[in-house]
Amino acid sequence: MTTTSTVRIAVFLSGGGSNLQALIDASRAGILSGKIVLVVSNLRKAYGVKRAEQAGIDTFVFKEKNYDTPEQAAEDLLKKLQGYKVDYIALAGYLRLLPMAVVKSYKGRIVNIHPALLPKYWGKGMYGHFVHEAVLAAGEKESGVTIHLVDEIYDHGRILKQVTVPVLPDDTPETLAARVLEQEHKWYARVLDKLIKGEYNE
Ligand code: GAR
Protein backbone atom coordinates (compact mmCIF):
# COMPACT_ATOMS: atom_id res chain seq x y z
CA MET A 1 0.00 0.00 0.00
CA THR A 2 1.21 3.51 -0.78
CA THR A 3 1.13 5.69 2.33
CA THR A 4 1.74 9.41 2.00
CA SER A 5 5.27 8.98 3.37
CA THR A 6 6.18 6.63 0.51
CA VAL A 7 4.69 8.79 -2.24
CA ARG A 8 7.22 9.35 -4.99
CA ILE A 9 7.41 12.71 -6.77
CA ALA A 10 9.07 13.81 -10.03
CA VAL A 11 9.81 17.50 -10.52
CA PHE A 12 10.09 18.93 -14.05
CA LEU A 13 12.03 22.15 -14.62
CA SER A 14 13.85 24.25 -17.21
CA GLY A 15 15.53 26.91 -15.10
CA GLY A 16 17.09 27.85 -11.81
CA GLY A 17 15.08 25.43 -9.74
CA SER A 18 14.39 27.61 -6.71
CA ASN A 19 10.98 25.94 -6.48
CA LEU A 20 12.65 22.53 -6.68
CA GLN A 21 14.88 23.60 -3.78
CA ALA A 22 11.85 24.70 -1.76
CA LEU A 23 10.19 21.32 -2.42
CA ILE A 24 13.35 19.44 -1.42
CA ASP A 25 13.61 21.46 1.78
CA ALA A 26 9.91 20.95 2.55
CA SER A 27 10.18 17.22 1.96
CA ARG A 28 13.15 17.01 4.31
CA ALA A 29 11.32 19.10 6.90
CA GLY A 30 8.25 16.88 6.70
CA ILE A 31 6.05 19.71 5.34
CA LEU A 32 5.71 17.80 2.07
CA SER A 33 4.69 14.16 2.31
CA GLY A 34 6.59 12.00 -0.08
CA LYS A 35 9.99 12.07 -1.60
CA ILE A 36 11.40 13.67 -4.75
CA VAL A 37 12.90 10.74 -6.60
CA LEU A 38 13.53 12.22 -10.03
CA VAL A 39 14.14 15.61 -11.65
CA VAL A 40 13.37 15.90 -15.36
CA SER A 41 14.63 18.78 -17.49
CA ASN A 42 14.72 19.64 -21.16
CA LEU A 43 18.00 21.46 -20.47
CA ARG A 44 21.02 19.64 -19.08
CA LYS A 45 22.59 22.98 -18.13
CA ALA A 46 19.63 24.25 -16.10
CA TYR A 47 20.82 25.18 -12.62
CA GLY A 48 17.91 23.17 -11.26
CA VAL A 49 19.60 20.01 -12.56
CA LYS A 50 22.68 20.91 -10.54
CA ARG A 51 20.56 21.47 -7.45
CA ALA A 52 19.08 18.00 -7.93
CA GLU A 53 22.53 16.44 -8.24
CA GLN A 54 23.70 18.27 -5.13
CA ALA A 55 20.71 16.88 -3.26
CA GLY A 56 21.46 13.35 -4.48
CA ILE A 57 18.36 13.16 -6.68
CA ASP A 58 18.51 11.34 -10.01
CA THR A 59 18.05 13.47 -13.12
CA PHE A 60 16.77 12.77 -16.61
CA VAL A 61 17.29 15.09 -19.58
CA PHE A 62 14.27 14.77 -21.84
CA LYS A 63 14.44 16.30 -25.32
CA GLU A 64 11.62 15.37 -27.68
CA LYS A 65 13.76 16.22 -30.68
CA ASN A 66 16.12 13.36 -29.84
CA TYR A 67 13.41 10.84 -30.73
CA ASP A 68 12.10 9.81 -34.14
CA THR A 69 8.50 10.59 -33.24
CA PRO A 70 6.65 12.40 -30.44
CA GLU A 71 5.02 9.07 -29.57
CA GLN A 72 8.41 7.45 -28.97
CA ALA A 73 9.44 10.40 -26.82
CA ALA A 74 6.28 10.13 -24.73
CA GLU A 75 6.70 6.38 -24.35
CA ASP A 76 10.29 6.75 -23.17
CA LEU A 77 9.37 9.45 -20.67
CA LEU A 78 6.48 7.38 -19.34
CA LYS A 79 8.75 4.36 -19.03
CA LYS A 80 11.22 6.46 -17.06
CA LEU A 81 8.52 7.74 -14.70
CA GLN A 82 7.12 4.26 -14.22
CA GLY A 83 10.62 2.87 -13.66
CA TYR A 84 10.99 5.31 -10.78
CA LYS A 85 7.46 4.43 -9.58
CA VAL A 86 6.52 8.09 -9.72
CA ASP A 87 3.12 8.85 -8.20
CA TYR A 88 2.95 12.65 -8.60
CA ILE A 89 4.49 15.18 -10.98
CA ALA A 90 5.24 18.80 -10.03
CA LEU A 91 6.05 21.22 -12.83
CA ALA A 92 8.37 23.88 -11.46
CA GLY A 93 9.28 26.31 -14.21
CA TYR A 94 9.06 23.63 -16.93
CA LEU A 95 8.74 25.50 -20.19
CA ARG A 96 7.64 22.68 -22.49
CA LEU A 97 4.28 21.04 -22.95
CA LEU A 98 4.07 17.63 -21.32
CA PRO A 99 3.34 14.78 -23.77
CA MET A 100 -0.39 14.03 -23.75
CA ALA A 101 0.26 10.37 -22.87
CA VAL A 102 1.90 11.51 -19.63
CA VAL A 103 -0.91 13.97 -18.88
CA LYS A 104 -3.45 11.19 -19.36
CA SER A 105 -1.57 8.63 -17.26
CA TYR A 106 -1.10 11.07 -14.38
CA LYS A 107 -4.44 12.86 -14.57
CA GLY A 108 -5.24 14.50 -11.24
CA ARG A 109 -1.66 13.92 -10.09
CA ILE A 110 0.18 16.67 -12.00
CA VAL A 111 0.47 20.18 -10.59
CA ASN A 112 1.88 23.34 -12.09
CA ILE A 113 2.88 26.66 -10.55
CA HIS A 114 2.43 29.90 -12.48
CA PRO A 115 3.72 33.33 -11.37
CA ALA A 116 0.49 35.28 -11.99
CA LEU A 117 -3.20 35.19 -11.21
CA LEU A 118 -4.73 32.90 -13.83
CA PRO A 119 -6.65 33.19 -16.09
CA LYS A 120 -4.67 36.37 -16.68
CA TYR A 121 -1.15 36.36 -18.14
CA TRP A 122 -1.18 32.86 -19.43
CA GLY A 123 -0.37 31.24 -22.75
CA LYS A 124 2.49 30.93 -25.17
CA GLY A 125 5.53 32.96 -24.15
CA MET A 126 4.03 33.82 -20.75
CA TYR A 127 6.62 32.48 -18.39
CA GLY A 128 9.15 33.78 -15.92
CA HIS A 129 10.07 37.44 -16.36
CA PHE A 130 7.77 37.90 -19.39
CA VAL A 131 4.82 37.43 -17.06
CA HIS A 132 6.03 40.10 -14.64
CA GLU A 133 6.85 42.52 -17.49
CA ALA A 134 3.29 42.09 -18.85
CA VAL A 135 1.75 42.60 -15.41
CA LEU A 136 3.71 45.84 -14.93
CA ALA A 137 2.98 47.06 -18.47
CA ALA A 138 -0.75 46.57 -17.84
CA GLY A 139 -0.57 48.69 -14.69
CA GLU A 140 -1.99 45.94 -12.47
CA LYS A 141 -2.32 46.73 -8.79
CA GLU A 142 -1.83 43.11 -7.78
CA SER A 143 -0.31 39.90 -9.05
CA GLY A 144 0.41 36.58 -7.42
CA VAL A 145 0.76 32.83 -7.69
CA THR A 146 -1.53 30.19 -9.13
CA ILE A 147 -1.10 26.50 -8.37
CA HIS A 148 -3.29 24.30 -10.54
CA LEU A 149 -3.82 20.78 -11.78
CA VAL A 150 -2.67 19.96 -15.31
CA ASP A 151 -5.26 18.15 -17.41
CA GLU A 152 -5.72 17.25 -21.09
CA ILE A 153 -7.09 20.67 -21.93
CA TYR A 154 -4.07 22.87 -21.51
CA ASP A 155 -4.63 25.98 -19.40
CA HIS A 156 -7.88 24.62 -17.99
CA GLY A 157 -6.68 22.58 -15.05
CA ARG A 158 -8.47 23.10 -11.78
CA ILE A 159 -7.02 25.92 -9.66
CA LEU A 160 -6.02 24.61 -6.24
CA LYS A 161 -4.63 27.80 -4.72
CA GLN A 162 -4.08 31.46 -5.57
CA VAL A 163 -2.10 33.87 -3.45
CA THR A 164 -2.05 37.58 -4.22
CA VAL A 165 0.78 40.04 -3.71
CA PRO A 166 0.69 43.80 -4.23
CA VAL A 167 2.34 45.44 -7.24
CA LEU A 168 4.20 48.49 -5.93
CA PRO A 169 4.61 51.74 -7.89
CA ASP A 170 8.38 51.40 -8.21
CA ASP A 171 8.42 47.68 -9.01
CA THR A 172 10.68 46.27 -11.69
CA PRO A 173 10.14 42.78 -13.15
CA GLU A 174 12.88 41.62 -10.76
CA THR A 175 11.39 43.06 -7.56
CA LEU A 176 7.94 41.78 -8.47
CA ALA A 177 9.35 38.34 -9.36
CA ALA A 178 11.09 38.18 -5.97
CA ARG A 179 7.84 39.01 -4.13
CA VAL A 180 5.93 36.39 -6.12
CA LEU A 181 8.68 33.76 -5.75
CA GLU A 182 8.64 34.13 -1.98
CA GLN A 183 4.98 33.04 -2.03
CA GLU A 184 5.68 30.26 -4.56
CA HIS A 185 8.29 28.80 -2.23
CA LYS A 186 5.93 29.00 0.71
CA TRP A 187 2.85 27.51 -0.94
CA TYR A 188 3.88 24.95 -3.56
CA ALA A 189 4.87 22.26 -1.07
CA ARG A 190 1.81 22.88 1.11
CA VAL A 191 -0.59 22.56 -1.82
CA LEU A 192 1.13 19.46 -3.19
CA ASP A 193 1.02 17.94 0.28
CA LYS A 194 -2.74 18.54 0.50
CA LEU A 195 -3.22 17.01 -2.95
CA ILE A 196 -1.25 13.92 -1.92
CA LYS A 197 -3.33 13.59 1.23
CA GLY A 198 -6.54 13.70 -0.81
CA GLU A 199 -7.66 16.98 0.73
CA TYR A 200 -8.77 18.35 -2.63
CA ASN A 201 -11.02 15.39 -3.38
CA GLU A 202 -14.63 16.42 -3.77
C1 GAR B 1 8.67 30.37 -11.35
O1 GAR B 1 8.36 31.72 -11.10
C2 GAR B 1 7.47 29.65 -11.92
O2 GAR B 1 6.26 30.08 -11.39
C3 GAR B 1 7.58 30.03 -13.38
O3 GAR B 1 8.95 29.91 -13.67
C4 GAR B 1 9.69 30.26 -12.49
C5 GAR B 1 10.71 29.17 -12.24
O4 GAR B 1 11.58 29.56 -11.21
N1 GAR B 1 6.78 29.19 -14.21
C6 GAR B 1 6.18 29.63 -15.30
O5 GAR B 1 6.28 30.77 -15.71
C7 GAR B 1 5.32 28.58 -16.00
N2 GAR B 1 4.50 29.19 -16.98
P1 GAR B 1 12.55 28.49 -10.52
O6 GAR B 1 13.27 27.73 -11.65
O7 GAR B 1 13.49 29.32 -9.71
O8 GAR B 1 11.72 27.59 -9.69
Protein described:
The chain has 202 residues and is of the alpha/beta class. It has a single domain (4-196), classed as Rossmann fold, CATH 3.40.50. The protein has 6 helices and 7 strands, in the order E-H-E-H-E-H-E-H-E-H-E-E-H. A 7-stranded mixed sheet has the order 3-2-1-4-5-6-7. Helix 1 packs parallel to helix 6 and helix 5 crosses helix 6. The model has no long low-confidence stretch (mean pLDDT 94). Bound molecules: glycinamide ribonucleotide. The site of glycinamide ribonucleotide (GAR) has 17 residues, from helix 1, strand 5, helix 5 and helix 6.
Salient structural properties:
202 residues, Rossmann fold, binds glycinamide ribonucleotide, 6 helices, seven-stranded mixed β-sheet, 21% strand, alpha/beta, single chain
Overall form:
globular
Distance between the termini: 22 Å
Strand proportion, as a percent range, falls in 15-25%
Major sheet strand order: 3-2-1-4-5-6-7
- Determine the CATH topology: Rossmann fold
Radius of gyration: 16 Å
**What's the average pLDDT?**
94
Which sequence of SSEs, written as H and E, runs from N to C? Answer: EHEHEHEHEHEEH
Question: Which structural class should the secondary elements be placed in?
Answer: alpha/beta
Residue share in helix: 25-40%
**Total domain modules:** 1
Which small-molecule species are bound to the chains here? Answer: glycinamide ribonucleotide
